[in-house]
């Protein structure tokens, strides 16, 4: 690997590490800005998964995130206490509990999805072709998006 390629990889690595932390921090601020400040990244992911399934059972959610039913039960109970979801016993099989999102749960998913849609739009609104330079340019635009989002929601 030549010196330029190595440097490009270092730049890409720095962007990715920085953006990883920015995604978490800015999504938290974005959610707070929209009145949803009490959910963790994991809780948002669980709500998102539940909303994507037709009739989500606790087991379905556990399988999607590779966690035990007990862990998911605890997490969904927390979401119930916070008012984002509730568990409903299946009418046909009393052993199965389905997860239903409340209006607040649906709102949280809406803003979670909107945040990532805006982020992807910021990356995809350009038709550049190339290799490392194109990716560096794309990641740079994403970094600018995060900076502007921080200002917008602060």
Care to describe what's here?
The chain is mainly α and 154 residues long. 71% of the residues lie in helices and 6% in strands. The chain has six helices and two strands, in the order H-H-H-H-E-E-H-H. The chain has helices at 3-33, 41-52, 58-65, 69-82, 103-124, 132-153; strands spanning 85-89, 97-101. It has a two-stranded antiparallel sheet. It is elongated. The termini are far apart. 19% of the residues are buried.
Largest sheet: 2 strands, antiparallel
Assembly status: single chain
Helix content: over 70%
Beta percentage is: 5-15%
Q: What is the distance, rounded to the nearest whole angstrom, between the alpha carbons of the first and last residues? A: 42 Å
Number of strands: 2
Order of helices and strands: HHHHEEHH
Strand numbers in spatial order across the main sheet:
1-2
Given the C-alpha coordinates, what overall shape results?
elongated
